[in-house]
UniProtKB/TrEMBL annotation:
<keyword id="KW-0812">Transmembrane</keyword>
<dbReference type="GO" id="GO:0005886">
    <property type="term" value="C:plasma membrane"/>
</dbReference>
<dbReference type="InterPro" id="IPR009571">
    <property type="entry name" value="SUR7/Rim9-like_fungi"/>
</dbReference>
<keyword id="KW-1133">Transmembrane helix</keyword>
<keyword id="KW-0472">Membrane</keyword>
<dbReference type="Pfam" id="PF06687">
    <property type="entry name" value="SUR7"/>
</dbReference>
<dbReference type="GO" id="GO:0035838">
    <property type="term" value="C:growing cell tip"/>
</dbReference>
<feature type="transmembrane region" description="Helical">
    <location>
        <begin position="134"/>
        <end position="156"/>
    </location>
</feature>
<feature type="transmembrane region" description="Helical">
    <location>
        <begin position="7"/>
        <end position="30"/>
    </location>
</feature>
<dbReference type="GO" id="GO:0032153">
    <property type="term" value="C:cell division site"/>
</dbReference>
<protein>
    <recommendedName>
        <fullName>Pali-domain-containing protein</fullName>
    </recommendedName>
</protein>
<feature type="transmembrane region" description="Helical">
    <location>
        <begin position="176"/>
        <end position="195"/>
    </location>
</feature>
<feature type="transmembrane region" description="Helical">
    <location>
        <begin position="104"/>
        <end position="122"/>
    </location>
</feature>
<dbReference type="InterPro" id="IPR051380">
    <property type="entry name" value="pH-response_reg_palI/RIM9"/>
</dbReference>
C-alpha cells in the first residue's frame, strides 16, 4: 500500500483504538469517562440508603454517585448493572434496569475489532490491507451501535429523573462523545486504507503497462 496512505491510516486507527479502550474501561476505574451524568443538587438518594447526593454518573461497568462532601461511591460493578434513585422524601423511586445498561458491553467489543484492524493495517499485502479496511468499517458499525445504546441510556435516565421532580440536570458524559469521535475516526481509517489499496493497484497496473509497451520506433527495426 502507498506509504502516503498507509501511515495516516495506521495513526488514525491507533488513536481510535486508544479512545475506544479508554471508553471501555470507564467507571468505576476512570471516573471522568462516564457515558452520562446527572446533577441532582441534594434532593436525591440512591438504593443503598445514602441521601443528599449531588451527582450521578453512569459508566460501562458501574454507576457512581457523589455526596455533598465530594466523595465518590460506586455501586455494583459488572455487566448489566441496575440501580434505583429516590427523591429526598423517598416518596418516588425510579429504576434504571439492566436492560438499559447491558448493551454497554458493546464498547469493549468495538475495541477488540479496532485492535484487529490496527494489527492487519501494518501488513503490505494487498489482501491483508483489504481485511484491515473491512475490519475498520466493521468496528465503525459496532461503535455506531454502542453510540446508539449510549443515546438510549441518556434519554432514559433523563426521563426517569424528570419523573422524580427533583430538578435533575442530565448531561452526556465524556465517554459519550469519545464514542462518537471514535466512530468518525474509524470511518476515516477504513476509507484511507481502502483508497491506499486502490492507489497501490493502479500504480502496479501502470508500471506493468509501461514495461510491456514497445517504443514506436521499434516498429521500423528489421527482424
Amino acid at each position: 500500500m502507498s506509504r502516503a496512505f498507509c501511515i495516516p491510516g495506521i495513526v488514525i486507527l491507533f488513536i481510535a483504538l486508544v479512545l475506544s479502550f479508554l471508553t471501555s474501561i470507564s467507571l468505576p476505574f476512570l471516573p471522568a469517562l462516564d457515558i452520562t451524568r446527572a446533577h441532582v443538587g441534594t434532593k436525591g438518594s440512591v438504593q443503598d440508603g445514602a441521601a443528599g447526593i449531588t451527582e450521578i454518573r453512569l459508566g460501562v461497568w458501574a454507576p457512581c454517585y457523589y455526596d455533598t462532601n465530594g466523595a465518590r461511591t460506586c455501586l455494583k460493578t459488572g455487566h448489566g448493572y441496575s440501580f434505583q434513585v429516590s427523591n429526598q422524601d423517598k416518596t418516588k423511586t425510579v429504576t434504571v434496569g439492566s436492560s438499559w445498561t447491558r448493551g454497554l458491553a458493546v464498547h469493549p467489543v468495538a475495541t477488540a475489532v479496532t485492535a484487529l484492524a490496527l494489527a492487519f493495517s501494518f501488513s503490505t499485502h494487498i489482501t491483508v490491507t483489504l481485511i484491515a479496511s473491512l475490519l475498520s468499517f466493521l468496528a465503525a458499525l459496532i461503535t455506531l451501535i454502542a453510540f446508539a445504546i449510549d443515546i438510549a441510556l441518556f434519554a432514559f435516565l433523563k426521563h426517569q429523573l424528570n419523573n422524580l421532580e427533583i430538578g435533575a440536570k442530565t448531561l452526556t458524559g465524556p465517554g459519550f462523545w469519545l464514542t462518537f469521535v471514535t466512530f468518525i475516526l474509524l470511518l476515516i481509517a477504513g476509507c484511507t486504507v481502502c483508497f491506499g489499496r486502490r492507489r497501490d493497484r493502479l500504480s502496479g497496473a501502470t508500471t506493468s503497462y509501461s514495461t510491456s509497451k514497445r517504443p514506436f520506433w521499434s516498429r521500423f527495426r528489421r527482424n
